[in-house]
Amino acid sequence: MTVASALWSFALLAGLLTIIPGLDTALVLRSSLTQSRSHAYATAFGICSGSFVWGAAAAVGAAALLAASELAFTILKLAGAAYMVYLGVTMLVASFRRRDEEVSLPVVKPARSYLASFGKGALTNLLNPKVGVFYIALIPQFIPEGVFPLGMGLLLALVHVLESLVWFSAIILATQFARKWLTSPKVVRWIDRVTGGILIGFAALLALESRPAV
C-alpha cells in the first residue's frame, strides 16, 4: 500500500462515516441554530482538534493501549458519559426556564463564548471513547510499511478533519437559510430539549457499552 492509495481509501471510508448523524453533528447543529455561525464553527474546530489528538494517539499506539486497558477505558468512558449528561441536563433545564419573550440568543462576550464553544466541541470529542476506537480500528490499517507512524496518523486525521469541516459547513450554511424561524424562543426550547435528550441518550449508551475488542 502506497501513501496515496492509503489516503484515498481512508478518505472514502471516513467520508461515509462522517455523514452518519451522531453526537458531533448534533452539537454543531445546535450551536448553529441557537447561537451563531461563528459559534458553530468554533464548536466544529473544537471537535476537529480532538480528532487530531486521537489520530496521533492511535498512530503511536497510545490509543491501542487505552483500548487494551479495562480500567483506562472505563475511566474515560464514565468521564465522557458524565460530561454528556452535564451538557444534556444543562440544555434541558435552560429550555424549561426560557420564556417566550426572552431573546433566544444570549448576550455574551464573543471571545469568551467562542472559546467555550471550542472547548465544548473538543471535550465532547476527547471524552468519547467511540472516537478513539474509530481511530484505533482504522488508522493503523492505513499506515504503509516504512512510513513514520505519527506523521501518517496526523495526515490521515487531517483528511478526516477536512471531510468533517465540509460536512459541518454544509449543515451550518443550510441552517442559516431557516435561521429566522428556527431561532424563535419556542423552537430554541425544543432544539435544546432534543439535543439535550440526544446527549443523555449517548451518555447512557456509552456508560453501558462494554470494552471494545482489540
From TrEMBL:
Native organism taxonomy: Bacteria, Bacillati, Actinomycetota, Actinomycetes, Micrococcales
Primary localization: membrane
InterPro entries: LeuE-type
Bilayer topology term: Multi-pass membrane protein
Pfam families: LysE
Residue ranges of the TM segments: 6-29, 41-65, 71-94, 155-178, 190-208
Protein keywords: Cell membrane, Membrane, Transmembrane, Transmembrane helix
Domain of life: Bacteria
Protein name listed in UniProt: LysE family translocator
Membrane among keywords: yes
Protein localization: Cell membrane
